[in-house]
Design goal:
homodimer; alpha/beta; 2 domains; 6-stranded parallel beta sheet; 18 helices
Chain lengths: 397, 397
């Protein structure tokens, strides 16, 4: 069995995270992804977050495994001609250079469409290609900031606003871009028509806050920071402190308040008039959370979770990365999967988040060395060994 | 021009956010989404985060606009037969009930495949359908907790771990699910084969941390909380305090350190030996950030941003929701779009994050009233007015 995108070929000019993770999703689903990199040093992702000990960039590994690396100097005319030649037999071209860079290289949509009218030409930007920031470069933390996400993340006591603890804008931007590419491929499959597709970090992060922003746009009530919960889910939607760590509770049907109090071994709380009605609990939620933090701090998380689970109340432990790594849930669902790596040996990496019954996604190979597949790819497109050697001598590859 | 998914019909059993936002993305791209809801009260999203003044649920509006609402009692045999009948002429079935619920209703993949072998049967769960939590229900904050995201979000001084300020797991889970559906549709278009597709909140959030988790899996170095930046981007990747708000800086090429110091009107800082080399700046980053916070606190954000922009340094304001709402960047890129709403009048909502040159996404209509399209949909599938009336009398609709 092969992935759902088997037979789809992607000519991939992407760098860093948003673009490369979009094509990683496609590679895991069976697409052939040909990563085009500058000869000599390759793309910036290769030197980001390099581990001191192994000299491996886990950043590059995590978002480029399963791709082929082809080196081409795009600033040389022969390099430009070469990628346009390859595009005749590809389905998708993707890049996330600063808006205007590909056009300046003579590699805009018009050139690729000229080479292959059926091509899907996908580009990702930081802030969108129109408007006052339409030519501005950017990255994850800037998109988190401009989109409003930073403003609602952090303790809700006037403390400093915070970014999310991982590069979430890059990730959401990547999945959104991949979604656009697949929609365009589906349209092409049904009509024969190619087109240009765009997504941005900012647009993806605005969409990620659809609910919360729509609430503001309709009510004009500025939300505070979400604190340990969510601004619009004020009750028992919260991360609490326990004796040995933290746990999350994910809401409670109002009629189950007495059950909750019994489950946490504090039945008298149900009779406390400050919390006796839903309205009172919402009004006095800060006091309630303070009391619960004190109460939960007396016993370890596992004990509370066992009691809450038994009462069928939404709850979960706050896992650190070590716990994520050992959680059988992640192994059994193949969210974490084994991979043999040429330098690192047998390691575990993050798998595809999508399960297909007929065409399973698959983690195929480690991240490619720079130019590892240059000869193989070009020969596959009909270049002879002599032509390849000549291009290499001319500094094109 | 119509969207890339024009002609794709989705029978949508989803509730709350992850499932409904996945089908919203599809509706914006031109799919016909038929939302199947329980007669009488509809799905839970209709009563979440209802605005006191307008009585409108901005939650429901934000993630269900542009869909059709059909009421069917799935617990009645005739209701079950009806949706299986509709599925014969649909392309996709989607649900995000707790694993096992649809099967118990006699509406699992086998039944739908029996009705339509080409159907794409998509389901979303909280934690995946296998493993110890394979039958456990869950929601956004629990997935943020179990996936490790909460553990790395928050101040890095030993403070409390925090969820992201919006329902980010629901969003990432939704886009991931939609991606899986489109991949399966594309495969079906190319081969004729239908299949089952699954995504989960947990799997989507593990994938969202691909880089950061891979780093842990390879190095076994437990990251601290990201604080005001990112654990693996320790230098000048940070949200800073200014005289009138906050701003973000998104990294600096090491050789540009003197330019940065000049841009912030503090050229002497470049000569400070604590920060004179990249290694020193990383080692002394806490001290550097403390000094910069003090320095930036002297002037308003706009002034700093102007200076940093002029020096071509990655930076951005931390926008609150009011600033997001008025930012021309969001209007001009159609991240925020106008919508006429039957109760609210002319409002602004969040648009599609994807731009297609040939088949633009489009925000068509407001969120449907419960059962608003029951007659229209059923007539479109060949039911006569008499049949519909009879089903309604029998309590099926």
């Amino acid at each position: 069995m092969t992935g759902p995108l088997e037979g789809i070929r992607v000519l991939d000019f992407t760098i860093a995270q948003q673009g490369p993770y979009a094509t990683l999703l496609m590679a895991d689903m069976g697409a052939e992804v040909i990563k085009v990199e500058q000869p000599g040093h390759g793309e910036i992702g290769r030197v980001l977050a390099v581990d001191r000990e192994s000299r491996v960039s886990c950043y590059f590994l995590a978002i480029n495994r399963g791709k082929k690396s082809l080196t081409v100097d795009l600033k040389k005319e022969k390099g430009r001609e070469l990628v346009l030649r390859l595009a005749r037999d590809c389905d998708v071209v993707v890049h996330n250079f600063r808006p205007g860079v590909m056009e300046k290289l003579g590699l805009g949509y018009d050139e690729f469409r000229g080479a292959n009218p059926r091509i899907i030409y996908a580009s990702a930007s930081a802030f969108g290609t129109r408007g006052p920031l339409g030519r501005k470069p950017g990255n994850d933390i800037l998109a988190q900031a401009v989109s409003g996400l930073v403003s609602v993340t952090g303790e809700n006591d006037g403390s400093h606003p915070l970014p999310t603890g991982v590069a979430i804008a890059d990730h959401v931007g990547a999945v959104t871009l991949a979604l656009g590419i697949l929609a365009a491929l589906l349209h092409r499959e049904r009509t024969g028509e190619g087109q240009q597709v765009e997504a941005s970090l900012l647009g993806s992060m605005v969409a990620a806050q659809s609910w919360e922003l729509t609430h503001y746009l309709v009510t004009r009530q500025l939300p505070g920071r979400a604190g340990r919960g969510h601004h619009h889910l004020p009750l028992l939607w919260q991360v609490y402190t326990t004796a040995d760590g933290y746990m999350a509770i994910g809401g409670l049907y109002p009629h189950r308040w007495p059950d909750f109090c019994a489950a946490i071994d504090w039945p008298d709380l149900a009779g406390d008039e400050r919390f006796e009605s839903l309205g009172n609990r919402i009004r006095n939620r800060d006091e309630l959370n303070r009391l619960l933090d004190g109460h939960f701090a007396r016993r370890p998380a596992a004990e509370w979770l066992k009691r809450l689970e038994a009462a069928d109340i939404f709850c979960a432990p706050v896992h650190d990365y070590e716990q994520v790594a050992t959680d059988p849930q992640n192994r059994e669902n193949e969210y974490l999967v084994p991979l043999r790596h040429p330098q690192l040996g047998d390691i575990t990496v993050v798998g595809s988040p999508i399960r297909f019954s007929a065409t399973p996604a698959e983690i195929r190979e480690a991240d490619p060395a720079l130019g590892q597949h240059t000869d193989e790819v070009l020969q596959g497109f009909g270049y002879s060994a002599e032509e390849i050697e000549r291009l290499r001598r001319e500094g094109v590859l």
